[in-house]
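Table 4 source record.
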Amino acid sequence: MNTGNVNTDNRTVKGNLKVLATGLAILCFGTAFARHANAGCLDYRAPKTAVSWQTPGEFYRSLGVVKVSVEDDWGWEPSFHRAPIVGLWAFKYISKGNLKTLGIPDGAIVDGGNTLWYADGNENTVSGVRAPDTGDVCLGIWKRTGEWTYELNHIGLSWDPVKKVPAGPAFIKQFVTLAEDKNSYEGTFTINQLGPDGKTPALPALIKGKIVATRVTISTDTQEALP
Protein backbone atom coordinates (compact mmCIF):
# COMPACT_ATOMS: atom_id res chain seq x y z
CA MET A 1 0.00 0.00 0.00
CA ASN A 2 1.31 3.44 -0.97
CA THR A 3 0.88 5.65 2.14
CA GLY A 4 2.14 8.70 0.27
CA ASN A 5 -0.85 8.64 -2.06
CA VAL A 6 -3.27 8.19 0.86
CA ASN A 7 -1.88 11.24 2.66
CA THR A 8 -2.05 13.30 -0.52
CA ASP A 9 -5.66 12.25 -1.09
CA ASN A 10 -6.59 13.13 2.51
CA ARG A 11 -5.07 16.58 2.20
CA THR A 12 -6.93 17.16 -1.05
CA VAL A 13 -10.26 16.15 0.51
CA LYS A 14 -9.67 18.34 3.56
CA GLY A 15 -8.73 21.29 1.35
CA ASN A 16 -11.88 20.88 -0.71
CA LEU A 17 -14.00 20.72 2.44
CA LYS A 18 -12.44 23.96 3.72
CA VAL A 19 -13.20 25.72 0.44
CA LEU A 20 -16.77 24.44 0.51
CA ALA A 21 -17.24 25.51 4.14
CA THR A 22 -15.87 28.95 3.42
CA GLY A 23 -18.20 29.37 0.46
CA LEU A 24 -21.23 28.33 2.51
CA ALA A 25 -20.28 30.75 5.28
CA ILE A 26 -20.03 33.65 2.83
CA LEU A 27 -23.37 32.69 1.29
CA CYS A 28 -25.07 32.46 4.69
CA PHE A 29 -23.59 35.79 5.79
CA GLY A 30 -24.72 37.50 2.61
CA THR A 31 -28.23 36.08 2.96
CA ALA A 32 -28.44 37.12 6.59
CA PHE A 33 -27.22 40.62 5.77
CA ALA A 34 -29.72 40.93 2.96
CA ARG A 35 -32.53 39.91 5.33
CA HIS A 36 -31.30 42.42 7.90
CA ALA A 37 -31.07 45.25 5.38
CA ASN A 38 -34.48 44.42 3.99
CA ALA A 39 -35.94 44.43 7.47
CA GLY A 40 -35.58 48.18 7.69
CA CYS A 41 -32.10 49.06 8.90
CA LEU A 42 -31.44 51.01 5.72
CA ASP A 43 -35.02 51.79 4.86
CA TYR A 44 -36.66 55.11 4.21
CA ARG A 45 -40.42 54.77 4.18
CA ALA A 46 -42.69 57.75 3.86
CA PRO A 47 -45.25 57.63 6.68
CA LYS A 48 -48.55 56.24 5.46
CA THR A 49 -50.30 59.12 7.16
CA ALA A 50 -47.89 61.78 5.83
CA VAL A 51 -49.38 65.11 4.90
CA SER A 52 -50.13 64.96 1.19
CA TRP A 53 -48.70 68.40 0.53
CA GLN A 54 -45.24 67.64 1.88
CA THR A 55 -42.79 70.02 0.18
CA PRO A 56 -39.48 69.14 -1.50
CA GLY A 57 -37.41 70.69 1.28
CA GLU A 58 -39.32 68.87 4.02
CA PHE A 59 -38.92 65.56 2.21
CA TYR A 60 -35.19 65.78 1.53
CA ARG A 61 -34.36 67.01 5.04
CA SER A 62 -35.90 63.81 6.39
CA LEU A 63 -34.09 61.58 3.91
CA GLY A 64 -31.30 59.40 5.23
CA VAL A 65 -30.26 56.28 3.33
CA VAL A 66 -32.72 55.00 0.76
CA LYS A 67 -33.26 51.34 0.01
CA VAL A 68 -33.66 50.46 -3.65
CA SER A 69 -36.56 48.04 -3.84
CA VAL A 70 -39.68 47.45 -5.86
CA GLU A 71 -41.56 45.81 -3.02
CA ASP A 72 -43.16 49.10 -1.94
CA ASP A 73 -44.77 49.68 -5.33
CA TRP A 74 -43.25 53.16 -5.56
CA GLY A 75 -44.25 53.90 -1.96
CA TRP A 76 -41.00 55.84 -1.50
CA GLU A 77 -42.11 58.52 -3.96
CA PRO A 78 -42.40 61.87 -2.18
CA SER A 79 -45.89 63.34 -2.15
CA PHE A 80 -44.96 66.54 -3.98
CA HIS A 81 -44.18 64.41 -7.06
CA ARG A 82 -47.89 63.60 -7.11
CA ALA A 83 -49.11 67.16 -6.52
CA PRO A 84 -51.95 67.72 -9.03
CA ILE A 85 -50.78 71.28 -9.80
CA VAL A 86 -47.82 69.81 -11.70
CA GLY A 87 -48.08 70.36 -15.44
CA LEU A 88 -48.44 72.99 -18.14
CA TRP A 89 -51.02 75.80 -17.88
CA ALA A 90 -52.35 78.75 -19.86
CA PHE A 91 -52.80 81.72 -17.51
CA LYS A 92 -53.97 85.33 -17.25
CA TYR A 93 -53.35 88.08 -14.72
CA ILE A 94 -56.47 90.25 -14.53
CA SER A 95 -56.25 93.67 -12.88
CA LYS A 96 -58.40 94.44 -9.85
CA GLY A 97 -58.15 97.42 -7.50
CA ASN A 98 -55.37 99.31 -9.35
CA LEU A 99 -57.32 102.19 -10.87
CA LYS A 100 -56.75 104.77 -8.13
CA THR A 101 -53.11 103.92 -7.45
CA LEU A 102 -51.79 103.04 -10.89
CA GLY A 103 -54.52 103.96 -13.35
CA ILE A 104 -55.03 100.36 -14.49
CA PRO A 105 -58.76 99.61 -14.86
CA ASP A 106 -60.37 96.50 -13.42
CA GLY A 107 -60.52 93.66 -15.94
CA ALA A 108 -57.44 94.75 -17.88
CA ILE A 109 -55.03 91.93 -18.75
CA VAL A 110 -51.79 92.60 -16.90
CA ASP A 111 -50.01 89.52 -18.22
CA GLY A 112 -50.70 86.11 -19.67
CA GLY A 113 -49.08 83.17 -21.39
CA ASN A 114 -47.95 79.72 -20.33
CA THR A 115 -46.57 78.51 -17.03
CA LEU A 116 -45.05 75.16 -16.13
CA TRP A 117 -45.20 73.81 -12.56
CA TYR A 118 -42.47 71.21 -12.08
CA ALA A 119 -42.71 68.25 -9.72
CA ASP A 120 -39.54 69.32 -7.90
CA GLY A 121 -41.12 72.57 -6.66
CA ASN A 122 -39.83 74.90 -9.37
CA GLU A 123 -41.87 76.90 -11.90
CA ASN A 124 -41.23 78.55 -15.26
CA THR A 125 -43.34 81.14 -17.10
CA VAL A 126 -43.21 82.51 -20.65
CA SER A 127 -45.25 85.66 -21.17
CA GLY A 128 -47.31 86.16 -24.31
CA VAL A 129 -47.95 89.82 -23.44
CA ARG A 130 -44.53 91.26 -22.62
CA ALA A 131 -42.16 91.98 -25.49
CA PRO A 132 -39.24 89.52 -25.51
CA ASP A 133 -36.69 92.36 -25.42
CA THR A 134 -38.14 93.60 -22.11
CA GLY A 135 -37.88 90.21 -20.42
CA ASP A 136 -40.61 87.62 -20.97
CA VAL A 137 -39.23 84.49 -19.30
CA CYS A 138 -39.52 84.18 -15.52
CA LEU A 139 -38.73 81.62 -12.85
CA GLY A 140 -40.39 80.72 -9.56
CA ILE A 141 -40.62 78.28 -6.70
CA TRP A 142 -43.85 76.89 -5.25
CA LYS A 143 -45.11 75.34 -2.05
CA ARG A 144 -48.23 73.31 -1.44
CA THR A 145 -50.10 74.81 1.51
CA GLY A 146 -53.20 72.61 1.64
CA GLU A 147 -55.05 69.89 -0.20
CA TRP A 148 -55.99 72.26 -3.03
CA THR A 149 -54.00 75.42 -2.29
CA TYR A 150 -50.56 76.59 -3.39
CA GLU A 151 -48.23 79.55 -2.91
CA LEU A 152 -45.82 80.69 -5.60
CA ASN A 153 -42.90 83.12 -5.35
CA HIS A 154 -42.01 84.19 -8.86
CA ILE A 155 -39.18 86.42 -10.13
CA GLY A 156 -39.24 88.30 -13.43
CA LEU A 157 -36.07 90.07 -14.54
CA SER A 158 -36.91 93.18 -16.58
CA TRP A 159 -34.74 94.71 -19.28
CA ASP A 160 -34.64 98.24 -20.68
CA PRO A 161 -34.32 97.78 -24.47
CA VAL A 162 -33.64 101.50 -25.05
CA LYS A 163 -30.82 101.98 -22.56
CA LYS A 164 -29.82 98.31 -22.88
CA VAL A 165 -29.48 97.88 -19.12
CA PRO A 166 -31.33 95.84 -16.49
CA ALA A 167 -34.58 97.50 -15.46
CA GLY A 168 -34.93 95.69 -12.14
CA PRO A 169 -36.64 92.52 -10.92
CA ALA A 170 -40.34 92.04 -10.28
CA PHE A 171 -41.39 89.79 -7.41
CA ILE A 172 -44.74 88.18 -8.13
CA LYS A 173 -46.62 86.35 -5.39
CA GLN A 174 -49.48 84.02 -6.20
CA PHE A 175 -51.96 82.31 -3.89
CA VAL A 176 -54.04 79.87 -5.91
CA THR A 177 -56.66 77.18 -5.40
CA LEU A 178 -56.83 74.21 -7.72
CA ALA A 179 -60.28 73.12 -8.90
CA GLU A 180 -61.39 69.66 -7.82
CA ASP A 181 -61.33 68.44 -11.43
CA LYS A 182 -57.63 69.50 -11.47
CA ASN A 183 -58.02 71.21 -14.85
CA SER A 184 -58.09 74.85 -13.71
CA TYR A 185 -57.03 77.09 -10.87
CA GLU A 186 -57.59 80.66 -9.75
CA GLY A 187 -56.45 82.98 -7.02
CA THR A 188 -54.78 86.31 -6.38
CA PHE A 189 -51.49 87.86 -7.40
CA THR A 190 -49.36 90.87 -6.47
CA ILE A 191 -46.48 92.31 -8.48
CA ASN A 192 -43.79 94.31 -6.74
CA GLN A 193 -41.70 95.93 -9.47
CA LEU A 194 -38.31 97.07 -8.19
CA GLY A 195 -35.76 99.41 -9.67
CA PRO A 196 -32.35 98.47 -11.10
CA ASP A 197 -30.87 98.23 -7.60
CA GLY A 198 -33.27 95.36 -6.83
CA LYS A 199 -34.47 97.06 -3.64
CA THR A 200 -36.25 100.33 -4.38
CA PRO A 201 -39.91 100.12 -5.51
CA ALA A 202 -40.28 101.39 -9.07
CA LEU A 203 -44.05 101.95 -8.77
CA PRO A 204 -46.11 103.82 -6.17
CA ALA A 205 -48.04 100.65 -5.29
CA LEU A 206 -48.19 96.93 -5.90
CA ILE A 207 -50.00 95.72 -9.00
CA LYS A 208 -52.69 93.30 -7.85
CA GLY A 209 -55.53 91.26 -9.20
CA LYS A 210 -56.89 87.85 -10.03
CA ILE A 211 -55.13 84.97 -11.75
CA VAL A 212 -56.97 82.31 -13.75
CA ALA A 213 -55.43 79.32 -15.49
CA THR A 214 -56.50 76.26 -17.47
CA ARG A 215 -54.53 73.07 -17.94
CA VAL A 216 -52.78 72.31 -21.22
CA THR A 217 -53.04 68.59 -22.01
CA ILE A 218 -51.62 66.31 -24.68
CA SER A 219 -54.78 66.90 -26.75
CA THR A 220 -54.99 70.71 -26.34
CA ASP A 221 -54.91 72.40 -29.76
CA THR A 222 -56.25 75.92 -29.09
CA GLN A 223 -55.48 78.71 -26.63
CA GLU A 224 -57.34 81.92 -25.95
CA ALA A 225 -55.78 84.97 -27.58
CA LEU A 226 -54.12 87.62 -25.41
CA PRO A 227 -54.28 91.38 -26.08
